[in-house]
Here is the input.
Amino acid sequence: MTGEQIQTLFGLMLEYTVPTLKIFGFTLLYSIPLGMIVALLKMCRFKPVSWLTNIYILVMRGTPLLLQLIVAQYSVPYIVRSELCPGFLHALLDGVDIRSEEYMFNMMLFAFVLNYAAYFAEIFRGGIAAIPKGQYEAAGALGFNRFQTFFRIVLPQVVRHVLPASSNEIITLVKDTSLASAIPYMEIMYIAKKQVPTYASLLPLFMAGAFYFVFAMLLTLLLSLIEKASDPLWRRGVNEKRKELFRRGNA
Amino acid sequence: MAMLEVKNLSKNFDKLKVLRDISFNVEKGEVVAVIGPSGSGKSTLLRCINQLERASGGEINVCGINMMSTNEKGRTVFADSKTLRIIRLKTGLVFQNFNLFPHMSVLRNITEAPVCVLKQDKNTAKEKALMLLGKMGLESKADSYPSELSGGQQQRVSIARALALDPEILFFDEPTSALDPELTGEILKVIKELAAEGRTMVIVTHEMAFAHDVADKVIFMEGGYIVDEGTPDHLFGDDASERVKQFLQRFNR
Here is the structure.
């Protein structure tokens, strides 16, 4: 391969990191809050809600993400055609152009979000369950209502508990985005595979691999920093150091 | 005026009767110690008064406000949630395990409720918190976190946290049971100071000498009943009931 070819290839690959980042970003944006809601639903004292949530989590964690992506992508026409399809769903899905890029992306995101929310939900549930009962009692005795107790007392502690496990999920998602290439959705993995015969070289695959690796590495650094910053003692130490430097700067 | 009136209070956990027919009053400025063997219902009594548990029957009146009462049909009725909230702010509770908020500094542990619940101005709350910390001998610990404090220090912070809401009646649920004897002393000293200020307090404790010194009235509970009650001199003296004497034998030696 000539230097010029490599440059062109690199430019092309770089362009297709954007769709990959798009899947990654939107999946996190929706699946983390949804995961929190699912975790709370699973802990709901009204048993049917808890059971339904359990079934959802079982299915999402028990079947391949690839399969879920494909089902989400191709099931709508079958649903619409089926006699069992309820009227309102029919009306909702009838006008949808299933060949549009927007539709494809949304259905793919739908599958990613539902899948990751299930995993996040289990992590968050564990985090919430780890908060001692005494914290709720102390908050109650001080007059906090349930809303204040959750957001001011429970959630900040849960965030700290769940950061390590969530980081793991987030790093996994970086690489899981490549499953979108099977839809097919044109992201970096799809383009890399396509360029192999064109250039008769493995370089496109190596470039894609390097991209995932660097992205995952930067995320690891960022997440470990966030983990550190979630420790109030660490934050106070940083603050004190900053004040000290400021004092020296003024002297 | 009675700050707390408890009448025929009962509490069942399924078939287990934890409180049976508990009646007592606490007057303004009075310090009441509740003693008795483990499992006698002392903590449950405090938890029912502080709304951490729902009592099964009877009447509770805090600062003249009915928390639970019996209507004409003989049914137990609770006050509406707004009233329960008002009552909650008139009472303060100090736990055996402190239950400080680990993600907040000592100062924020104390100011959080006044700012969030009472909507106090942040600076006012902070000034008050620092004053309370000073009283507890912890002014230097304002920026520390609970994990950096000894058990005794944590318990003093939790007392300051309860005091920050200006409760009219303060409850202690075995405040020294998680502490070693040395740290126990520093908490008992703080509670004695509060008693000297004329605060109304109900203290569940296993510290018999302390109960004798600080309390105006001592209640002895066993099996969910109040077995005996009276002045410390009565309960720790010769005319106490046989069961109380038997229980106190170990301590009087």
